[in-house]
Design brief:
- It contains ten helices and no strands.
- Helix 2 runs antiparallel to helix 3, helix 4 runs parallel beside helix 6 and helix 5 packs antiparallel against helix 10.
- Helix content is 79%, strand content 0%.
- The radius of gyration is 16 Å and the shape is globular.
């Protein structure tokens, strides 16, 4: 692996791990947007999948006392089903229009939330868990971006407590992140460079996410809600521009 690729993987993982630790999401989007500049898409998805598994497991463990175990089953299974479908799609299709539509939805939804327009009336119901988490899994499989959709549900369900919000959302990601690694292995997306890159990113994210979680524990609910919606809007714009 070239020194340039190592540096890009290291920088992306340190930055994204901190952001994810502080907001409860963001790792996949930041790292995919960066690592795909120097690594083929499928290999980058495999690299990020390993680091993401390490990250969501770590954050879930650090915040385990805030987890709603009884409420975790349906969202986690929905994310898992969506993730499997998304990875299969990724190996056969890259839809520009699907990606742009996703970006537009994220911008529109989060903008209405910042303006206190509750047009979609998201209250964190069981059916909303199924819809938003399965869609998050689908887009997570194709683009490694599960966070924004899952965040919509978790904001409604646990928005009163940033720690509960981050703990439960990251727990939802664990099963799908684990299956994603095995699927990438099965599809042959781990070449020697991807193995090295995943090791670098997994090791660096342990440090950066720990620092991010320390920031999260000091955030108040309103500030977390504001920051997460701003983050979703920014990611939606990046998705639309990137096409």
């Amino acid at each position: 692996m070239e020194a340039e690729v190592i540096l890009v993987c290291l920088f992306a993982s340190l930055l994204a791990g901190f952001v994810h630790g502080a907001l409860g999401m963001g790792y996949g989007m930041i790292t995919m947007a960066t690592v795909t500049l120097v690594v083929p898409y499928n290999n980058a998805a495999a690299i990020v999948a390993v680091a993401l598994l390490v990250l969501v497991s770590q954050v879930s463990w650090q915040l385990r006392k805030y987890i709603d175990w009884r409420g975790a089953l349906v969202p986690a299974l929905a994310l898992l089903a969506g993730k499997i479908s998304g990875i299969v799609l990724m190996m056969h299709l890259q839809s520009v229009y699907l990606r742009i539509a996703f970006g537009v939805f994220l911008i529109a939804y989060s903008s209405t939330q910042l303006m206190n327009v509750k047009a979609l009336k998201i209250k964190g119901t069981l059916w909303q868990a199924l819809f938003f988490c399965s869609m998050g899994g689908l887009f997570g499989g194709v683009f490694n971006v599960s966070g924004p959709f899952a965040s919509i549900y978790c904001q409604a369900k646990y928005g009163h407590d940033p720690k509960a919000y981050a703990a439960n959302m990251n727990l939802y990601f664990v099963p799908s992140a684990l299956v994603a690694v095995f699927m990438h292995i099965g599809y042959g997306n781990f070449n020697p460079s991807a193995v090295v890159g995943s090791g670098i990113m997994a090791a660096s994210v342990l440090l950066s996410a720990t620092l991010g979680v320390a920031v999260l524990k000091r955030l108040k609910a309103k500030k977390m809600y504001l920051l997460s919606n701003i983050y979703i809007i920014i990611m939606g714009i990046i998705i639309c521009i990137g096409g």
